[in-house]
Every structure is written in structure tokens, then in C-alpha cells.
Amino acid sequence: QVQLVESGGGLVQAGGSLRLSCAASGSILSINAMGWYRQAPGKQRELVAGITSGGSANYADSVKGRFTISRDNAKNTVYLQMNSLKPEDTAVYYCNAEDCSGYACQVNWGQGTQVTVSS
Length: 119
What we know:
Blueprint: E1 2-7, E2 10-13, E3 18-26, E4 31-39, E5 46-51, E6 57-59, E7 67-72, E8 77-82, E9 91-101, E10 104-109, E11 113-118
């Protein structure tokens, strides 16, 4: 079982920055892709950014140019640097990690961290 613990959320004014971290621990086999999702009240959970074990990243159009995802494979940790935050970025942010043994993978989720951007 893999546990994911997020940190770094909080309240920030529009235009500000936050950095989220998510550390994986437990019975890790091999962490493959990692990512950040978010869910605003009344909306579906959506992908914010993802990153492969090799460092290739992809982003939702709404955050391109403002958010940067990175990871430290030695620490099994993924980060999300969020700049130029907007009120519409307000949501609970969840990280996930794909833990694989060969072609068998299990997706694990963190408990979420609240990000609130005030106007």
C-alpha cells in the first residue's frame, strides 16, 4: 500500500504563488507517472498537470504558463509550483501516483489539500 501526503495548500490573494508537495511512502514498487488533480465545489475532478518518471510533463490549458510540475524520483515526491493564481484556481488539490510492477499498476490518491485564492 502506498500512502500519499500532500502539503502546501492555503489561502492566497490573486496573483500570488503557492507550492504544493506530495510525498509517497509505504510499500512502493516503482512509481511511474505522478500528477495533480483538482476539484472545485460542484465540479468534477480535473487533471491539472502530470509528469512521467522521465520528467515529461503535460498541463491543462487553464494552467499552462502559470503552473510547473516537477518531481524528485529519489524522494518519490512530486511538486506543483503555482504562480499568478486566480480565484478560479480555488479547489481541493489531489496528487496521485501510479505504482507499477511490470505492467500491473495501481493508482493511489492523496487526501487532498485546499487551495483558496481570494480576489
